[in-house]
Amino acid sequence: MTTQALETKGRIIGLTGGIASGKSLATAIFAELGIPIIDTDAISRELVEPGSPCLDAIRARFGDEILLEDGRLDRHRLRQRILDQPTERTALEAILHPAIRARAREHATAAARHAPYVLVVVPLLAEASVWPAYRDWLDAVITLTAPPVLRRERLVTRPGIDASQAEQLLAAQVDDRARRAIADFELVNDRSPEALREQITELDGRLQQSHSAD
Prior knowledge:
Layout: H1 3-6, E1 11-17, H2 23-32, E2 37-39, H3 40-47, H4 53-62, H5 75-84, H6 86-111, E3 117-121, H7 131-135, E4 140-145, H8 148-155, H9 163-171, H10 176-182, E5 185-188, H11 193-212
Parallel strand pairs: 1-3, 1-4, 2-3, 4-5
Helix pairs in contact: 2-11, 3-6, 4-6, 5-6, 8-9
């Protein structure tokens, strides 16, 4: 991505990072700074509400066992299934990713008309199966990194995740080298929340200044 792309008004910028790298904290800080956030995880949850076409397709592919008693998606069961069987992950992505991407682009384009830049949070952006579909409409990419040891520590504090599953989750994603390869900016979340806030504030200032100069 070029400097010229960064200098256009209403830029659409991707934010990515591995699991437990601190994306929720980072997006909260950007939001506090007034930046619109388009969260593809949130979009994914919306798309699998009971009665939705995506949930119907997931049920048809994976069976009734991936549903809770109230008809909602059993995320824990589905997550374990795609970790145990990589081909199942490919099938799930084929159902969800096109719909997520279309809605994210629609929301980001609308928000970019009224902001210097918009963040589209895509955890799996650096995956070979994901990046090509976003590359042509993102003006830049920010990657959030954190040492694997810290990410493991964070993961095992989450409900339902033990040390073994934490290793599976980390191993199922590309590493930070792949994320850096597509990124224009890197934020390193290896210290305190205040240290990450300082980095984000500095980057926001650079992006805001670039927009003002247009």
